[in-house]
Amino acid sequence: MTTQKDPSAFDVATKGAIGIAGATAIAVAYAAYVGAVVWVLWGWFVVPLGVPQITVAWAIGLCLCANMLVMPVPRGPANTKPTHHMLVRPAAFLLMGFIAKQWM
Fold this sequence. Notes:
This protein is mostly helical. It has helices spanning 7-45, 56-69, 83-103.
């Protein structure tokens, strides 16, 4: 007797992996886009004041720092804790900052 694997388990795992890879690709593209916008704006408005030009990687790092400083903590019911904003989001910023630093 031959046993067959459940095709739905493979489909779920494949879709999950594709979803994670897609989300990562979108996050990287968005970080590069925002970094490029900040880089251009820096060149237009800050460099004429005598401050040196920055790279896109520096601009991504500046955006990460600014987002960490103004990161709001959501208010919810008293029995819930904003674990995502306290642990996961800072760790994600640290990882993105590490990647941007390697790019410099």
